[in-house]
Specification:
Blueprint (H helix, E strand, L loop, with lengths): L5 H22 L5 H18 L14
Helix pairs in contact: 1-2
Length: 64
Amino acid sequence: MLRMTTGNWVFWSIIVWIGAFLIWIGFFPDLAAWIGAIIATALSALTLVFGPRPKIEEHEEEVE
């Protein structure tokens, strides 16, 4: 499974917001832009919340 850092997911979240908003404006030019902004924000938040997280490696510490 694809694993990326949190910074990468923030980047992709911003890209999703821009893309969703531009698609909204392209397909629904007569509707209010703030509706598209709300939908884009929701999609961006879903990208941040449900995106795969970096694999956390657990190091076993030696007990003496």
